[in-house]
Design goal:
With about 35 residues, the protein is mainly α. The protein has one helix at about 1-35.
Length: about 35
Amino acid sequence: IELHQEQEQLQLYRTCICHLERHKKQLFFRDSWEK
């Protein structure tokens, strides 16, 4: 059970990182777009 929980945590973590990266890219594009 603990192992499974760790797996879920990892999955959440990866998803979070993915969203963060996407968000950073969007911000970056918006930044360069306004200049």
